[in-house]
Specification:
This protein is α+β, with helices and mostly antiparallel strands and 88 residues long. It contains two helices and four strands, in the order βαββαβ. The chain is elongated.
Length: 88
Amino acid sequence: MRLRVEFTTEPFDLDRVPPHAEAAREALHGAGLDAVDVGPFGNTAEGAGDAVLAAVRQVLSASLGAGATRVSLQVSVVGEGGPAEGTP
């Protein structure tokens, strides 16, 4: 199964990237997922189901450990095997 994770960390800081957001992004980039998109108000990534679930655990652990007070996330099934429909 192929999954997509979307998440944000709080509290927000419009003047700089908070340490908890940096920690979450580093965990996401180190997870070996594809289609990673990191933005100022949210992050998304896709990959094999097991890899995405492991990445979610890493993101939660890293961001909460770095001071996040809230992590909002959504995990969606986007396909059964290879790349999700509509992605190159």
